[in-house]
Design brief:
The chain is of the alpha+beta class. Helices cover 32% and strands 31% of the residues. It has two domains: 56 residues, no CATH class; 76 residues, Immunoglobulins (Immunoglobulin-like, Sandwich), CATH 2.60.40.10. 18% of the residues are buried. The N terminus is likely disordered.
Length: 147
């Protein structure tokens, strides 16, 4: 089981999570002020959804990424980069840093385990290093994520 304290410090609410919590807080405040307990039917599911999302990220293995790069080429050639993502049942947003001299759209969203491929075009001569790859995990509701 993963270490909860280290993962807890890495969790951040998304805009969706903050908006949901604000809507739930407003519904609870209005229900308390005006006695309309039916507003709790709005607040309770939102709070449960946010809690489930946080628990999902706490107990899920941190996603890992391995890169397979194409061989050397000449300017104008195209190669395929494969990113192998492992981890638990989360949504993972990948962002690959592509240096000058190479051209690619190194962003993707997937659910592990998966392999994401993208085309890399050589624009300039020389040795170029890809990376680092950033993997940002979020829960299935999109209410919280790791940075």
């Amino acid at each position: 089981m993963p270490s909860i304290p280290s993962q807890w410090s890495e969790l951040r609410p998304t805009r969706r999570g903050v908006g949901g919590l604000l809507a739930a807080a407003a519904a609870i405040a209005l229900a308390w002020l005006f006695g309309a307990r039916s507003l709790n039917a709005v607040a309770a599911p939102v709070l449960v959804g946010v809690a489930v999302g946080v628990v999902q990220l706490l107990v899920t293995k941190t996603p890992g990424v391995e890169r397979t790069v194409p061989g050397a080429g000449f300017p104008g050639d195209t190669g395929t980069v494969a990113l192998h993502v492992d981890g638990g049942p989360t949504i993972v947003e990948l962002e690959e840093t592509v240096p000058e001299g190479l051209d690619a759209d190194g962003t993707a969203t997937t659910s592990p385990p998966a392999t994401v491929e993208y085309d890399l075009t050589y624009r300039a001569r020389g040795r170029h290093a890809l990376g680092p790859t950033t993997a940002r995990a979020s829960d299935v509701f999109g209410s919280s994520a790791t940075p």
